[in-house]
Amino acid sequence: MEKLTAVIRPDLVRTRLLVTHGPEEVLKALLAPGRQVHRRAAPTLLEGLSLWFQQPLGVMLAVDDVREGAALGLCDDFGFGARTLHYAVEVRRRAARQGSARLDGVGDFRELRRALRWLGP
Predict the structure, then answer these.
(1) What is the pTM of this model?
(2) Helix, strand, coil % in the chain, rounded to nearest 5
(3) Confidence check: pLDDT of 26 > 70
């Protein structure tokens, strides 16, 4: 069975989401900043994706500060990721930003693709 994974990168302007099923990218999204959404929005979205694909979802949350993840309801204030029947969140501190802020289509997802390697097979 191919692994279902998601990388979430919230910042002050937007939240980027990349979901893969095995080697295939199945969803790329630009969403509102995490601090502006309902506290159940991200957990409900991840649960829905898990139900859609009928398998648990591995999630990597790339943050500068764990408070960003806590605002999304995906980790606690200590940086421990949420775990449910439908998904497990691993919190990673993001490295300093490199490259331009130019958007093509829905944006540059190279950083999130690199982050997928942290989750492993």
Answers:
(1) 0.77
(2) 25, 30, 40
(3) yes
